[in-house]
Prior knowledge:
The structure holds 3 protein chains of 3 kinds. By secondary structure, chain B is an alpha+beta fold. Chain B has helices at 7-27, 42-46, 49-63, 101-114, and strands spanning 34-39, 67-72, 84-87, 94-96, 121-122. Chains in contact: A-C, B-C. At the B-C interface, helix 1, helix 3 and strand 2 of B face strand 1, helix 3, helix 5 and helix 6 of C.
Amino acid sequence: MIKLSIDNKPVEVAEGTTILKAARQAGINIPTLCYFELDGMNFENKPGGCRVCVVEVKGRRNLAPACATECMEGMEVFTSSPRAINARKTVVELILSDHPNDCLRCEKSGDCELQALAARLGIRELPFKGEQTTFKKDSTLSVYRDMDKCVYCRRCETMCSKFQTAGALSGVNRGFPSVVAPAFDQPLGESSCINCGQCVQVCPVGALTLVDNINDVMKAIADPTKTVIVNTAPAVRVALGEEFGQEPGSIVTGQMAAALRRLGFDYVFDTDWSADLTIMEEGTELLQRVGKVLKGEEAKLPMFTSCCPAWVAFYEKNFPDLLEYPSTAKSPMAMFGATAKNYFAQKIGVNRKDLVVVSIMPCLAKKSECAREEFGKDGNPDIDYVLSTRELAHMIKQCNLDLNQLPEEDFDSPLGQSTGAGVIFGATGGVMEAALRTAYELHTKKSLPKIDFEEVRGLNGVKEATVDFDGLPVKVAVCYGLGNARKIMEEVRAGNPNGYNFVEVMACPGGCIGGAGQPYHHGNSDIIRKRMEATYREDAGKPIRKSHENPDIIAIYKEFYGEPCGHLSHELLHTHYFDKSDKIEATLQ
Amino acid sequence: MTKVKSLAELKAMKERLHSVLDVREKAENPESLVQIKVGMATCGIAAGAKQVMAHMMQKADELGIQAVFTQTGCMGHCHAEPTVEVSVPGRESVIFGHVDNNRADEILAKYIQNNEKVEGVIATNKTNQ
Amino acid sequence: MSKYNTHVLICGGTGCKSSNSGQIYENFKTILGEHNLTDEVQVIKTGCFGFCEKGPIVKIMPDNTFYTNVTPEDVRNIVEEHIVKGRKVSSLLYVNPENNEHVSDSRHMEFYKKQVRIALRNCGFVDPENIEESIARGGYEALGKCLTEMTPEQVIAEIKASGLRGRGGAGFPTGLKWELCAKNKADQKYVICNADEGDPGAFMDRSILEGDPNSIVEAMAICGYAIGATKGLVYIRAEYPLAIDRLKIAIEQAREYGLLGENIMGSGFDFDIELRYGAGAFVCGEETALIHSMEGQRGEPTLKPPFPAVSGYLGKPSNVNNVETFANVPVIIIKGAEWFSSIGTEKSKGTKVFALAGQINNVGLIEVPMGITLREIIYEIGGGIKGGREFKAVQTGGPSGGCLTKKHLDTPIDYDSLVAAGSMMGSGGMVVMDETSCMPAIAKFYLEFTCEESCGKCTPCRVGNKRMLEILDKITRGESTMDDLQALRNLAGVIKDSALCGLGQTSPNPILSTMDNFWDEYVEHVVDKKCRAGVCKKLMSYVIDREKCIGCGKCAKGCPAEAIAKTDYTAPGHKLPSMEIHGETCIKCGACINNCKFGAISVQ
């Protein structure tokens, strides 16, 4: 242990502890800007670049960045000496001198870390006036970039290039016009970007924001010729409450359904329902592939999940040689859309063009997924609009509703009833667990002795388990973060030395609960943990917890799809992938 | 090219190659060395000065005399070519005339090394100028 | 083999080469051939002699004649007069400005008298493309000595005892650096030579690589032996093609001779060197940025610790030294730490190479013992200020350094005295200024450089330097207030105190030191809107004395901005009305002054 003093307070910390963490331990909260950590999730951005956290260390020639300076025995640290405060304020004034300062109309207003920092430091003047950097605005279907606001914290770069290994964003230019951008001034949409949107989730300011579709949805609702239906993803209900002041981990499923109804949606459905449908298709596909391999026939293993659209974009761009490995099953959202437009529209007697399907997602990549040409018919998409959790919250507030005061209501039928298996899709390992619950029983024709697969739960980046399917060992892996996925894909390319049969991949930290469309967590990984706990709590409280036991699922197979992986489900619920590596090669050259 | 396989081999190579830089190293500090100037105007060359100079350089090496050789223009003693001016530190410079290989050897061994008289000294009026 | 009796050394450094020394070399070959002297006379292209002011330089050995400003056309004269007839070509000899006497031997020139050449010992002496000349000069003997007679610990101890400090700028003790790296165990370590010379005007590293690449190869191998590394990497800017070529040749020849590669000199020690090219970013001289650049990453610094000695190139322990530092190493091994430490001052041992530039008579590359005074450098070696003007300041340490003034002329120069005086050693740039230099404009010049070269990673350097530059710009345009000076000082202090790397931490030095030493000049710009050096155009106005003007109109005809027109005043005794200059349209080009034969126009 190391003994030191911070602001004359004695502190004892383990070797290797930074001044920043030691100070927090002592109840002294040194402000930071570029520093960003997702504790326990292998994400740390520590360039030591913004210099907001500088502190005075006795005997040291210059100020030390608290985020990156390790404590030393006998160190005397002063976090609020006039010298440290002057430097800190000057640094923030410098940042503001190259910032549009258009807070009133900034998407990030109220959620902006720079705004909070300026308020906390009591910045009342902008003493430095001069040139400001300006860049071309740029947008994909998911992410909007206004780099005039960039403070060059490099969080997005670390997320994109280190954590996701997508490599779309990196520092370009030098000196004053330095900025994080795709190489060679490419538009982000033409780069190796996979639209995971995590750059938006970690951006401290309004430089990276989501593409807002609220107005599109409001217009559709207001259009009397349209029937507007909505489906909400599993991870939304465990996070939406945060936007209304509720504790992280609050479950607001019922109030959310009530809010959606009051917003004017004609039918309020649940993506959890189509998650159950996904399990039927994907579980069956897994059993088919395993069965073929056991018979010595050609089939690709491991099978990868395909629910996560950022992950899909990632392997289409980076692993065009392995496109036969992921499951052909569409994502729950896409299955919902296909069912809504092809089955439900007919059922209620509405032309598919007059049925507007809206998805509420924790995700920004879904905004890009719904535009995939193959997810639609004759130019009419299966899902018309995707709103993120944050947009839904904005919409509720805009429409003068207070989620906290709404009653709990149920989803509508027939695409609303779900099981606990559908619920846990929101957390890393959830799809795997749900699939195992069903695949085990379909394969063994026996009831699971224990429904909870604890070994695939939790926030470890990569989890492994071997499940005994009544004598058939099934080796599975679960990962989040595409950097972890890249490692597994490279292993598969090298012959799958670990012998995986089934791998779940989610792009975002902790899975969809940590999605880019969720309320900003500002690096507080406890928020993600609490959302995860809530997810499993919701599962545990469900009367039915296995997808194949969902009566609405059983019904739709009977009424419409026939059987899992049957002819119609192949047409509507399965898809195929495309080699999109040309984008990557263009970037590399 | 054979590789240098030890420090001893490197040192041997240095010794062998050293003469390459000899002229340059001596030039760094000429005052402490014997200076030998060979008249190399047309008259001198015609009388064999080139060959005498080469011979003297080789001989000086053999005798271990640290000398700087330069060629110079006509010294005005065309009747006595080849002419060689020798300055030994601490002594006045002397010009020798009709220097052939034998006389060159004498100059080196007798005059320079042992300060003995050697024939062929041309009286100059340098000191009177 | 007959021995060459005459050697012609031609400077083949970048400076002289760009002044056509290549053609000089060819002409020597041709004309010596005409005279049948190719067996007697050896012609060699060497590295830089340092006296670049007088280049191209040709040196004739053994009579040590130093010819200056030689053109290809002069070669015939040199051959036929000097080499054939022994008559020195006096028109090409250096002229001592003091007494107008010709000086033929460089040792008698003021420029060389006080120099002590250790790092530059072989530059201008050996043929850099022939390893045999290096070996004849004692090259690789130090490596052999280390490998056969010394343990790695002894090598490090020797370097430590010598007191050698890093010549790249900060002056970190070299032996200690080696020791820190040697301590870390790893399957692979790296010796990195920093040849990313970036200070504007500094070219000592280039000159050493061009003139004596074998010493660097040898020193890197010695370092490898000392720290336990088998791989060496030279990070060299691609703008140094000649240095790259010479270094490649040296490495190739060293491999051929078994002085690089496996089992060097039978010692069992393996070492080899590869080149890595930089794109010439100033910040890549910072060792962590350099390492990132070599790895193919963005060339920007990261926080230390971890130091490269712990985690450097590809995460392996690495030792980074600058070219000039390495150049001292073999000499220390051969002559001993005691000899080396007898040169210099108490805390700065040995010599330092400076690139002498600016308003000084003898521009060039000099190597002087630590502890020499600025006065000796400027007035003896440098031959004083050009045009006999008054000395005002000398800038040392490049963009990271500061300005020293008259009061520092007799300060012995070493790492610590320079820092104490508000400047730094840096890599050895030395720019001499006279009264025609405007100090705020000088500060602005250096800041423009740092702004351009900042990697942008940290706020103080990325935004702070830009804001300082904008304030300086206002000052030189006469648009600032005293509050700006206050803000500039505070900002400079914060940047120095809070920037991430050495580049940012030192970037305010040119401002702070000029403010400290030339405060009056700043105040003049701000309050009086005057630039006493006449550099800041915005603060100058051209005025026609209407009494002296005869109204010829020549000034108006030559004015590119059409800023001059007739008045309705005719001076007594003149026939035509006087002219006047309109300040708002005048672009201050000075053409009118040159056109006026009557001295009627002046700058105010």
